[in-house]
Amino acid sequence: MSDCEIRTREPGPDGTVAWPDRSMVEAAAERIRPHVVETPLERFSAIDDMLGCELLLKGEHRQAGGAFKARGACNAVFSLDEAQASRGVATHSSGNHAAALARAASLRGIPAHVVMPRDAARPKREATARWGARIIDCEATMESRIETLDAVMAETGARLVHPYEDTQVMAGQGTVALELLPALRESDCVLVPLGGGGLISGMSLFLAEARPGLRIIGVEPAGADDALRSLESGVLTPVRPDTIADGLRATIGRSNLAIVRRHVDQVVTVSDAAIREAMRLLWQLAGQVVEPSGAVTLAALLEGRVKPEGRAVGVVTGGNVDRARFPFLAETPL
């Protein structure tokens, strides 16, 4: 575990960051209610007909800031006491967490320091700057991110809000599952994009208590399959990511891997071609502009990586795609 990881409560069962429980997710929902929206759960008959199953899509691309990351960032920022908050917050992120933390800090009126790799997607960099965060560039490696962030925290005294290995972040992301709960049936399977693991951790921990027996499936790009490799090998196995799904290039956290091992039924991978096709279908058949990371759950069904016995519920995580590149991606055939 890196030096920049924090523990917001007692360590969890794996000895790293504490695992949030159902009560923490419910508390997070109340805390962030003024700052996020309850996103829709939608069904599109044209997509159902193509897949031969009933698919419900949880549209987090319609969330404040364009992604589910607003939930975890707001929960982490607004759970800080005044003394902690006064020193500001810091993180490293190549995408949606950067903008989400910048927004949450702006809403609370505190500084935000964000370490971003120089090759971060333009819309996400611009959104981070638009919310007034201080952006510190680094090289596109995890080592450079951590080294730069350590220097920023030493300089500012800011509180780390890790993108995924943070108790309050996981609890905030778990509110996606809380909103889904009334619609979920025991026969359903829930497909969740998997990168660093904050979203699937919060959701699976909540659903393990609220809807035990529900099938939960993590979906990651084949070019960033560190979670699947880590589960198969039994140890954290980083890879050099090579995928259009920039939001899923992070190596899964140690705490998140332990949660996935215990509470997620299956992890599958999808090709970039299938991700492009899923983006195209969501655009053409549902009128939805979705970033590559948000399209992986539909991609898993298109490639037959998941064959739901009941109804499939797919989480669409974000819509912050570079519009200049979107038509090219969308028109690329499967």
Description:
This protein is of the alpha/beta class and 334 residues long. It has 2 domains: 22-68 and 168-331, Rossmann fold (3-Layer(aba) Sandwich); 70-163, Rossmann fold. Helix content is 43%, strand content 14%. The protein has helices spanning 22-32, 45-51, 69-78, 82-86, 96-108, 122-130, 142-156, 167-173, 175-180, 198-210, 226-233, 254-263, 272-286, 296-302, 326-331, and strands at residues 41-42, 55-59, 89-92, 112-117, 134-138, 159-160, 189-193, 215-221, 266-270, 312-316. A 6-stranded mixed sheet has the order 1-2-10-7-8-9, sandwiched between helices. Helix 10 (198-210) runs parallel beside helix 12. The chain is globular and about 55 Å long.
